[in-house]
Amino acid sequence: MIPSLLQIIPSGMEWVLIVGAIVVVFFGVKKVPELARSFGKASGEYEKARMEAKREIDELKRQAKDGAGGIGSA
Predict the structure, then answer these.
(1) What is the pTM of this model?
(2) Of 1 and 7, more confident
(3) Which residues have CB under 8 Å from 64's CB, separation 6+?
């Protein structure tokens, strides 16, 4: 019997191991911690920017609801 495509494609932890092996092959064992640290910092910066954008959007919505701070208001 031929296995279905879903049985052939790895999932979950298998993908983590495959990606980890590829990263080690391309960058070497000594470079992996530095890459992980850089990824963590970038992820943190992205999260801060996302939260700031959300705050600004919420503030604009609040101002629009109150009818204040729109274009042409003085």
Answers:
(1) 0.54
(2) 7
(3) 70
